[in-house]
Structure formats: structure tokens, C-alpha cells
Specification:
The protein has 339 residues and is α/β, with parallel strands linked by helices. It has 12 helices and 9 strands. It is elongated. The chain is 48% helix and 13% strand. The strands form 2 sheets. A 6-stranded mixed β-sheet has the order 3-2-1-4-6-5, with helices on both faces. It has a 3-stranded antiparallel β-sheet with strand order 7-9-8.
Length: 339
């Protein structure tokens, strides 16, 4: 086996970030593109050092005329490498990016659960991380959206989604595939500029690279990495603050009868304004975002968070107009009551 700098980098990353342990079962999502082929080749080469049991999963969205041939191509690669292969085909073509992603993760989770894989591994790269940061920034988001594409996250009970290539750019995966003569399946939809992500990849990133920073993908990926640690810290601090505001923390100044949500319904609930008033605005907003995530079916908007945060210092009896679903927040003395 040829040991390249990328092999060494991924080996160090997996070990230093504790992504996987030895002898675990890894289900690798392989589309046939350069990133996923680079990923499976790296894991195969590292397998002797780690003792992993590898499997390949392919999801056919049926949105291209050659999707079935693409699936056969990946299946033949799995046979060549002597790896278990799993195929999931959509019942009907999925043409929406978000819907396709949701279906894909559901399909991968089902395969992993049925075949006792602890991890699902994808070939997301630093380039994907940079594109996601730009995509979310353009749409309007806070730090949580900008740090999207984390190294790992739970997909379902007992199964983690892992992304070991987040420090490798798409240029590097292409060079790796060329070096090892890996048979890349070219996805024609990657050139379709009706998709916003493709316009970012094909037009915006090259423009930024040529006119502002030749290493823009790595720079943006590093920004996402920094934000990830900060978001984790803020989320933990906000949860602790929320617990105190709900009367769940140790605070002798709070009344002994806070109104708490039941396990079956998040409403009604009450937040102590005196607790929240002592906190920085960033934590106040994050607490309100966490609360709204419990009562809204969709992600809370900036406007939703702001109007709830405003009640922290609003006059008594102030209230919001209804949130989606009908909930209303009202100031009652030292409390913000949602009902």
C-alpha cells in the first residue's frame, strides 16, 4: 500500500478527534463521486491498522437517467474490494435537495440499524464546509448555521454520523483519486446551476479564490471549525441559564412554585426574568431560541427570538402576538409566561 500525506492526515485526525475506535463497524456512504471514493479508499487502506468492519451503502434518488447504472458501478466496486454492499432506491424520484438529504439519512440509518453498524461515514470535505457556511450566511443565519457540517452528530439511537474528511479540500480528493486511478462516476447534477449550492461551488467560490483568497475554502472551513467550539460552549451555558430561569437550578431567590412543562406538552412554561436580566444578550437570545425550539414545529426565526427576548425587560402585562401554532408569551411580574 502506498502511504500518502492524506493517509497520514486522516489517520491522525481519526485518532486525535476520537472519531472511531478499533474493530468497529463502519457503514460508508458512497455515491461514486470523487469525495466518497477517496473516503472509502482511505478507510480500506487504514483498515489493517484499525481492524474495522466496513460496508458500503449507496442511495439511488432516481433523479438522473443514469442513476441505476451509477448504483451498479458502486456495487461492482464493493465486490472488487470484498465489502458488503447495501442499496436503497427511492420509491419515486426526489428532486428537492432538502428532501433528498432527509431521505438519504433515513435510508442510511435504516441500513445501519438493520445490519448492526455503529457509524455512518460520509465524504464531506472542507470544500463542502465552506460552501455550507456561505449558503447559510447568504440565507441569513447565526453562528449555529455557519458552523454546520460538524465532525460528528447523532443520527438516531445508537448511530453516529461521522465526517473524517473535513480538513481535506475537493481539489485534494480529486488528486487522490487520480493518483490511485479510482473510477469516478461523474454526477451530471453537480453542474446544474438551478441548485444554489452548485452556483456557490461553480461560480462564487472560484470568484472568491481568484479575487480575494486562493485558500478561501480552507479559510472558511477553519472559521466553521472555530465557530463549532464556540457554539457548543454557548449552547451548554444557555441550557444552564434556561434551567435556572425555569426554576430547575439551585437559586434561593426564586419562588418555589415555577410552572413547568409536562413531559407530554412543552406548554405552559414560565421563565424568570430576574435570572435572564443578569445574562448577556447573546445568552438571552440563545435561551429563547432553545425554548422556541420546544414549542414550534419549524425552526424559530430571528423575529420570533427577538420578540420573545424583548419581554425580558418589557413592562408588566406586555405580550407577543401569537407564534406559529398559537402560543402567546406574556409578562406577569417577574415571569415570562408561554401558554
Amino acid at each position: 500500500m502506498v502511504w500518502t500525506p492524506i493517509h497520514a492526515k486522516i489517520h491522525r485526525t481519526i485518532r486525535s478527534r476520537h472519531l472511531f475506535e478499533r474493530n468497529q463497524r463502519l457503514l460508508v456512504a458512497v455515491s461514486g463521486g470523487q469525495d466518497s471514493l477517496c473516503l472509502i479508499k482511505l478507510l480500506l487502506d487504514l483498515q489493517s491498522k484499525w481492524g474495522w468492519n466496513l460496508g458500503i451503502a449507496h442511495c439511488d434518488h432516481r433523479w438522473r437517467s443514469d442513476s441505476q447504472a451509477n448504483a451498479h458501478h458502486v456495487e461492482n466496486l464493493a465486490k472488487t474490494w470484498g465489502i458488503s454492499f447495501y442499496l436503497e432506491t427511492a420509491n419515486k424520484p426526489i428532486n428537492n435537495e432538502a428532501a433528498a438529504r432527509d431521505w438519504r439519512y433515513q435510508a442510511l440509518s435504516a441500513i445501519a440499524q438493520a445490519n448492526n453498524y455503529q457509524y455512518i461515514v460520509t465524504g464531506h470535505t472542507a470544500s463542502d464546509r465552506a460552501e455550507t457556511l456561505l449558503y447559510n450566511l447568504i440565507r441569513g443565519t447565526g453562528a449555529d448555521g455557519l458552523q454546520a457540517l460538524t465532525w460528528q452528530r447523532p443520527l438516531t439511537t445508537g448511530i453516529m454520523l461521522m465526517r473524517p474528511l473535513l480538513e481535506i479540500t475537493r481539489t485534494q480528493t480529486e488528486q487522490f483519486c487520480q493518483e490511485f486511478k479510482l473510477p469516478i462516476w461523474e454526477d451530471s447534477t453537480n453542474q446544474d446551476l438551478q441548485y444554489a449550492r452548485n452556483r456557490i461551488r461553480q461560480e462564487l467560490i472560484p470568484y472568491l479564490r481568484d479575487n480575494f483568497n486562493p485558500q478561501v475554502e480552507s479559510a472558511l472551513a477553519q472559521t466553521a471549525e472555530l465557530l463549532q467550539a464556540e457554539v457548543e460552549h454557548l449552547e451548554k451555558a444557555a441550557q444552564e441559564l434556561q434551567d435556572k430561569a425555569l426554576g430547575m437550578g439551585e437559586n434561593e431567590e426564586l419562588p418555589l412554585f415555577p410552572l413547568l412543562p409536562t413531559p407530554h406538552s412543552p406548554l405552559p412554561l414560565r421563565l424568570n426574568r430576574r435570572v435572564l436580566q443578569k445574562a448577556p444578550l447573546a445568552l438571552q437570545r440563545r435561551v429563547m431560541r432553545q425554548v422556541l425550539q420546544q414549542i414550534l414545529t419549524d425552526a424559530p426565526s430571528f423575529e420570533h427570538i427577538e420578540k420573545l427576548t424583548a419581554l425580558i425587560i418589557a413592562p408588566n402585562r406586555s405580550q407577543t402576538d401569537p407564534f406559529p401554532g398559537g402560543a402567546i408569551a406574556q409578562v406577569e411580574g417577574d415571569w415570562i409566561c408561554l401558554k
